[in-house]
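B., you asked whether I could sanity-check this one before it goes into the benchmark set. Here's the sequence:
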Amino acid sequence: QHSDNLATDLLIKRVGIVKVNRAARRYGGEGFGELTSMIDVRRAIYRRLDARADRLSARQVAGLRRARALAARAKLFSKAIGSQQPISVHELEVAYDDYYASGLNSAAMADVGHMLAELERRAVVDPLASQHMLDIMLRCKTGKRRLRAGLPAEVMLAHKTGTQHRRMCDLGIVYPVQRRAIVLAVCLKDYGSSRQAEALMARLAAKTHALMAEGQVWPPPPPK
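And here's what the prediction gave me:
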């Protein structure tokens, strides 16, 4: 219910990353890139700067994650690996770009949407497991200014947020009152500010709900 990388990695360790990848492709589609643990996401980024990133402890990786500014992250990373030549912000930006281009831990929104639709149909793993996952997602506490902010209070939202440098996502299922569920998967990149990105997500949720809940079609049909 609270986005937690450590909890994610504990679950991945328990289930096994091979099974996680197999399930992602089975229920989402072949468009899913290889999935890794969250700590390996960080190491994969910093490995592009220096191979000594593989020796970073979980505590050191968490410290890098908590440093919001790239300059602070670059400084911490340089210190952690004992580099005599400080890593620059530009080098870290390039490392992120290279990582995003690799396709690791990524998928097209259509594939993510397909997985969410399968979950809503209670067809992921089995009906009981699907319902348990939906119950957890319905109690999600993160991302209150994202999709949730654009929906009426009485409308339920089962969702999961994700945030990375210059990437922001909110992936969920909207439950309009007395209407069919709406799958809404939104990811943004290269935005001006976090507040702007969150406000855009809220507007997308509001517009989608207004159109779908009222039975309208989007995009509208061309005039006759």
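One thing to flag: The first strand starts at residue 156 and ends at 164. Otherwise nothing jumped out at me.
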